UniProtKB/TrEMBL annotation:
Record EC number: 2.1.1.74
Protein's UniProt name: Methylenetetrahydrofolate--tRNA-(uracil-5-)-methyltransferase TrmFO
UniProt source species: Primorskyibacter sedentarius
Enzyme class: transferase
A GO molecular-function descriptor: flavin adenine dinucleotide binding
Source lineage: Bacteria, Pseudomonadati, Pseudomonadota, Alphaproteobacteria, Rhodobacterales
Domain MnmG N-terminal: 5-372
Keyword Methyltransferase: yes
């Protein structure tokens, strides 16, 4: 093998990418800046360090999308999953991990691989040639961040996420909510009905503001706040500035008529906007928040129409470097403008240890196949990996793109399955069965491609 694969960043994604490519017979160099250059969250120089919680979330591969991702990674001989299983801690249905031995084992396993070497250095520029995967995560160093921004444009690289909560469409009560764009703006019927509206009367609004002010909030890390406060204030901060601020901001009731009560003027309106092309997910417009997760669900379910809302992801504001992947990456996670560079992990706009490692797994395999010169079978969209990569590279709305966890809202609906809460168990089982079969076929088709 003459060509090497260079991977920048030895976190969740970079470690998994290196393992997959090295097992396919490709020589891999991991460029990792720690321990020489530190981040505010990492504590060691280990590869695969978990920066905060020690949980890989649900391990249920029949009823949970992240559990399905675990299953798919295990089938693909994933290093991150095998090491997590080896250092598993008791945590009910979740997969919790003993973090230090986990990262030590990831490091030792990669170091012992004959095809892997590690170069401890910060990469500060985008390489002009060779085969590269950039997996530098939410805390990408400033110099490399600046180089990526220079290549992609200021709008295309974010340094913070401001995530508004995302809700499964099927859990919204449409006997209270309705579809309408403000002032019926738009050329087509689809545009004129692009928003989903939830009305509030005065009492409901006042109670909502009280709950918002009283809710438990997460504190900002030191040095974390710079850059937030232009255009993406958390809703609770807006409420603190005045009880009417939200009613004149994201909750303004103008230009809308409630077809359920055409004679009653709403005092405030919460708007939701479609979050994916499938129309299975909606985000609450302008509702980025630092409320703690438990408080968030309680407060948001006070909104008429959202009493039974189920959340595909909750809101948050964090330091997070990520690309506008729907506009920048192709379906193989290559940068359109420099296709010798792939991106993987959280910097692509997925969120979480497992999702990041999964994107590393894909990038490692895809890069290896390209280097070997072997045709790779198309990744099936109906797998957890496929649904996630399809979302970030095309299915998501580019204008409002924010990082995403894996969830069943990203999956193509199944014909003939019952919607709503009642059919959920059967539906999720059908999603996971469909995914497992497609993933197994995809892996089997690679045996002649990758070693
Ligand atoms: C404060 C914080 C808390 C979080 N808490 C959680 C949590 O509880 N649960 C969860 O699932 N996710 C959490 N996340 C998200 C988490 O970071 C990701 O889930 C996961 O670690 C991302 O994997 P990754 O491989 O993309 O990035 P990382 O695991 O961060 O790996 C990126 C690697 O790139 C290296 N690097 C950066 N720039 C350069 C450079 N220029 N040259 C060379 N190396 C470089 C870094 O040192 C790092 O080792 C948190 C993130 C942050 C910032």
């Amino acid at each position: 093998m003459t060509q090497e694969l260079h991977i920048v960043g030895g976190g969740m994604a970079g470690s998994e990418a290196a393992w997959q490519a090295a097992n396919a017979g490709v020589r891999v160099v991991i460029h990792e800046m720690r321990p020489k250059v530190e981040t505010f969250a990492h504590k060691t120089g280990n590869l695969g360090e978990m920066v905060c919680s020690n949980s890989f979330r649900s391990d249920d591969d029949e009823q949970n999308a992240v559990g399905l991702l675990h299953w798919e990674m295990r089938q693909a001989n994933g290093l991150i999953m095998a090491t997590a299983d080896r250092h598993r801690l008791p945590a009910g249905g979740a997969l919790a991990v003993d973090r230090d031995p986990f990262a030590e084992t990831v490091t030792a396993t990669l170091m012992a691989h004959p095809n892997v070497s590690v170069s401890y250095e910060e990469v500060t520029a985008l390489p002009e040639d060779g085969n590269w995967i950039i997996a530098t995560g939410p805390l990408t160093s400033s110099a490399l961040g600046a180089a990526i921004q220079a290549e992609t444009g200021a709008e295309a690289l974010a340094f913070f996420d401001a995530i508004a909560p995302i809700i499964y469409a099927e859990s919204i009560d449409m006997s209270k909510a309705w579809m309408q764009s403000r002032y019926d703006k738009g050329e087509t019927e689809e545009e004129r009905t692009a928003y989903l509206n939830c009305p509030m009367d005065k009492d409901q609004y006042e109670a909502f503001i009280d709950a918002l002010l009283a809710a438990d909030k997460t504190e900002f890390h030191e040095g974390e706040t710079a850059g937030y406060f232009d255009g993406c204030l958390p809703i609770e901060v807006m409420a603190e500035r005045g009880r009417e601020t939200l009613r004149f901001g994201p909750m303004k009731p103008v230009g809308l008529t409630n077809p359920h009560q055409p004679d009653v003027k709403a005092y405030a309106v919460v708007q939701l906007r479609r979050d994916n092309a499938l129309g299975t997910l909606y985000n609450i417009v302008g509702f980025q928040t630092k409320m703690k997760y438990g408080a968030q669900t309680d407060v948001l379910r006070m909104i008429p129409g959202l009493e039974e809302a189920r959340f595909a992801r909750l809101g948050g504001i964090h330091r997070n470097t990520f690309l506008n992947s729907p506009t920048l990456l192709d379906a193989q996670m290559r940068l359109h403008s420099k296709p010798h560079i792939r991106f993987a992990g959280q910097i692509t706009g997925v969120e979480g240890y497992v999702e990041s490692a999964a994107m590393g797994l894909l990038a490692g395999r895809l890069a290896a196949a390209e280097i070997i010169g072997a045709p790779m079978p198309d990744l099936p969209q109906d797998t957890a990996h496929g649904a996630l990569v399809h979302h970030i590279t095309g299915g998501a709305e580019a204008k409002t793109f924010q990082p995403m966890n894996v969830n069943f809202g990203l999956f193509r609906p199944l014909d003939g399955m019952k919607g709503g809460r009642r059919g959920r168990k059967d539906r999720y089982k059908a999603y996971t069965d469909r995914a497992k079969s497609a993933w197994s076929d995809w892996l089997a088709a690679q045996t002649s491609v990758l070693a």
